[in-house]
Amino acid sequence: MRQTDGIFDGGQMADKVIYYTDELNDEFSTMQITPIPIDEHYDYGSGTFFWHLRRFFFYRIFAMPLAWLYLKLKYRHKIINRDLIKPYQKGAFFIYGNHTNILCDPLVPTFVSFPKGVFVVVHPNNVSIPHIGQKMRLLGALPLPDNFAAAKNFMRTMDMRVKEKASICIYPEAHIWPFYTKIRPFADTSFKYPVQYKTPVFCFTNVYQKRPFSKNPRMLTYVDGPFFADESLPPKERRKALRDAVYEKMCERSLLNTVELIKYVRKSV
After folding, report:
1. Per residue in 163-201, pLDDT tens?
2. Cα separations in angstroms, 178 against 2, 26, 163, 253
3. What is the mean pLDDT of the segment spanning 123-131?
4. Which own/partner contact pairs does 13-18 have at CB distance under 8 Å and 24+ positions apart?
5. Residues 228 and 200: beta-carbon distance below 8 Å
6. Could you say which DSSP state residue 62 is in?
7. 95 phi and psi, to 5 degrees?
């Protein structure tokens, strides 16, 4: 699907312009963090009873209520079509979302996957925040590895979480573009995981809509799926077909944006 310009009939016009040159690699997060090394010594968290007990209290008892309050009060957040996931809650699955909100993106997958716990593949910046970076493990952060030895550790952890029948979230666009109203092109690399583990795939698309009497938009999260890899195709073609199906659906949902807070303009060379 070729994306068209969104229609903002009666919506709020953008009051900020950001110029970009590379849809795949430009990053517009306002957080300036020096990432810690994710090497073979990085602790991704274990599968022991006591680790999960600590995660339960920090994730379920402390973090989730605060996250729910923030999403509701700031954005009047609502998830649409979450029932699509219910028949698959007894097994592992992967979910893919658009990367448009610095604070909300770590929170939304929790409620999309609920009551199943979620683990989120993240940039090392997310576990490098002073004082709270290490706590991100208990919230489910899985930082991308920096070297081959670390990659083996990362995949062992991925194996463990899939065997635990967890939900694993990936933001395939990789870089944050705050309040972006389209879906940027993304590679099919991260779709190798559901192909490898033969798990269902879901996607969610966060869209922003005009909210009366508030400068903050309403945030709606549309869930779609399940998508399955076509076993009749070779592995590389399977992940491409899976990526294309998810991309098409996210592009379709992105047309439901009705407010453009930031206008992104390609910089002329």
Report:
1. 999 999 999 999 999 999 999 999 999 999 999 999 999
2. 21, 12, 34, 17
3. 80
4. 13/260, 14/260, 14/261, 14/262, 14/263, 15/261, 16/261, 16/262, 16/263, 17/262, 17/263, 17/264, 17/265, 18/177, 18/262, 18/263, 18/264, 18/265
5. yes
6. I
7. -125, 140
What is the chain's Cα-based Rg? 18
Peptide bond into 226 cis (omega under 30): yes
Helices (H), 4-147: 49-55, 64-75, 108-113
SS3 state of residue 218: strand
Paired with 227 in beta bridges are 201
User: CA of 11: how far to CAs of 99, 181, 209, 258, in Å?
Assistant: 22, 13, 8, 6
The pLDDT tens digits for 250-268 are: 999 999 999 999 999 998 7
Token duo for residue 206: 């966060």
Which tokens hold the place of 74?
């700031």
Contacts of residue 178, Cβ cutoff 8 Å, sequence gap at least 6: 28, 29, 30, 100, 101, 102, 261, 262
